Amino acid sequence: MFEQINANVTKCTTFSQEELNIFDALLVSKTYPKKTFLLQEGEVCNFEAYVVKGCARTFYIDDNGFEVILQFAIEDWWISDIASFNDQTPSRLFIETMEDCQLLLLAPQTKEDLLFRVPKFERVFRMMIQRNLSATQNRLIGNIAQPAQERYLAFLKKYPTISQRIPQHYIASYLGISPEFLSKIRAKIARK
Amino acid sequence: MFEQINANVTKCTTFSQEELNIFDALLVSKTYPKKTFLLQEGEVCNFEAYVVKGCARTFYIDDNGFEVILQFAIEDWWISDIASFNDQTPSRLFIETMEDCQLLLLAPQTKEDLLFRVPKFERVFRMMIQRNLSATQNRLIGNIAQPAQERYLAFLKKYPTISQRIPQHYIASYLGISPEFLSKIRAKIARK
DNA sequence: AAAATCCATTGAACTAGATTAAGAAATGAT
DNA sequence: ATCATTTCTTAATCTAGTTCAATGGATTTT
Fold first, then answer.
1. Chain A closest CA to B91's CA: distance in Å?
2. How far from the centroid of its chain's Cα atoms is residue A27's Cα?
3. Hey, is the C-beta of B65 within 8 angstroms of any chain A C-beta?
4. Strand B67-73 to strand B101-106: parallel, antiparallel, or no bridges (unpaired)?
5. Phi and psi for B73 in degrees, rounded to 5?
6. Domain boundaries in chain A?
7. Residues A82, A132: contact at Cβ < 8 Å?
8. Is it the case that residue B192 has pLDDT exceeding 90?
9. How far is Cα A86 from Cα B5, in angstroms, rounded to an integer?
10. A147 phi, psi to nearest 5 deg
């Protein structure tokens, strides 16, 4: 069960089998059915979760009830509210499974423990958050500078498998457009 | 000259005078005139800069020459291209002073050095990047969910001093709207 | 102090995308 | 199988924001 996550963290730095064993022993495996909330607004996020199998989304609901999707996570992605997790403050986000999921969970104290025992993991988590920041910046730029159709095509290119697995209106929400307009874009693309 | 930055990093964790001395000794102070490029697309970012005095901006130019401002930095902010700095890869961003600036610079190797000698600084930099991620996420959400006028008012509230100091079209670029439209929003607000 | 450049405003014409409403297709539940 | 719910599409109308162009005010530059 751990080969997958071990291979993944080894992409950042090399670890000895010893170190990976410590890591694996600290992870907790859990499964959740489709449409389960892993986190709701107001709760403190007590996990960083590695997706072994399945698919989830992080989203935000604004004052008017309008939903914005911040992240999709499929196999080999991490999902969490990093700010809430690290500072142990109430979250403004929701995290919900979109398929049955198997996750490997790391609790705050356990993470501390890991970093203390295998400091090299600092690097893994720093890279994670850095990549997240870069991706979010790129998305912000795209949202400002590109029209919806280009953003959609870029999404398909970047996440070819995700777009097969999830309802289309989630993609619209991620792109920051209405589901109706996404439908029109698709019709227009198909016509060619 | 260092009281300012020392007070600032002390907000995250407490440091002994000893530790702060090590930190200060590794910083390089430089001044730059207005409209100087600290970083240009294609270059590898070799600094994380703390703004002692002055004002700078980070921006991106897309394929059509369209400019998007990612960050403003005034006194007590850090400015850098974190991804380029950490991975020593070419940057896609520009960083330019908007006023005469005094900066305290940290080079990649020097930062390594600092983290090795005073590991507690890991926390300072982790908090920095985390705050950056949260801010970028909030901006993305705002850009998707809020109309331009609300974003502008939120900007004024969040950065009351910045809006006094910089040309208005930069604010428009930050908000993701045309300068003309910002002008109209302002006229509408003033009319009330 | 004049010239040159940059900056902000205004208005008219236009467009990308939202909203509303309705029906069709797909998926799930009993 | 069928009923219900969710999802996708299409079309009409509407609006927030863009683009273009013209003007006057500020700043720099010489």
1. 11
2. 18
3. no
4. unpaired
5. -130, 125
6. 3-123
7. yes
8. no
9. 24
10. -70, 165
Pairing of strands B78-79, A67-73: unpaired
pLDDT in tens, B125-134: 988 999 999 9
Contact criterion met (CB below 8 Å) for A36 and A95: no
Question: Which tokens sit at A137?
Answer: 């910046």
Spatial strand order of the sheet with A28-32 comes to: A28-32, A101-106, A48-53, A78-79
Task: Say if A61 is an interface residue toward chain B (CB within 8 Å).
Answer: no
A179 touches chain B (CB under 8 A): no
User: How confident is the model over A45-86, as pLDDT tens digits?
Assistant: 999 999 999 999 999 998 888 899 999 999 999 999 999 999
Of A134, A137, A144, the CB nearest to B176: A144
Looking at domain B3-144, which CATH architecture does it have?
Sandwich (2.60)
What does chain A come to in residues?
192
Prediction pTM value = 0.94
Whose structure tokens read 């929003």? Answer: B185
Homologous superfamily assigned to A3-123: Jelly Rolls (2.60.120.10)
Which residue in this structure is represented by tokens 């964790």?
A: B13
Residue A148 exposed, middle or buried by CB count within 10 Å (0-12, 13-18, 19+):
middle
pLDDT reported for residue A63: 83
* Helical axes B17-26 vs B108-117, angle rounded to 10°: 170
